[in-house]
Amino acid sequence: MRTGIVLLIIVSVVGVGWWQVRHLKATAGNDGTSAGVGLTLYQGDAGIALPRISGKTVEGKSLDLADLRGHVLVLNVWGSWCAPCRAEAPDLAAISAETAARGVRFAGIDVRDNPAAARAFASNFGITYPSFDDQNGLVLAQFTGIIPVSAVPSTLVVDRNGIIRARVVGQVDDSTLRGLIEDAEKVS
Is the whole-model pTM more than 0.85? Predict the structure, then answer.
């Protein structure tokens, strides 16, 4: 019985990994344009609908991404324990503040962390936008095939219609993120 459970877990992990590799190869091809290491652009019909996600934030409040529809959305996967997350945090905080008047909204998914560390991280870097508390990985799991579960940090840029237009796997830099936001703002 125990051997069967272990085998089932191994087959499941291999299956998810295989599916993610196939998806990453597909999105770097003709349906999305790979513009550099870790950056995939989804143009035209190649965009991916943002999954319906709701839950609790690290502050204990409710957050539903459906409430942000009609705005360009930047969704960042991070953890306070992640060095590249610390490196990109000042840019995310600044761009969030600068683009808010244009209707751009930011949200985060804080993974494998605890709320106290996440709140300290946000305070230290001046991050004012909400982040899902995803200690158990269930929020990030809803992005299977879109964001690799081990890809922290990762950033999605979503147009006003709820369609993912860009994915950055790894640390996003200031100029890239600004350009991706501007591109998503042009999509009607």
Answer: no
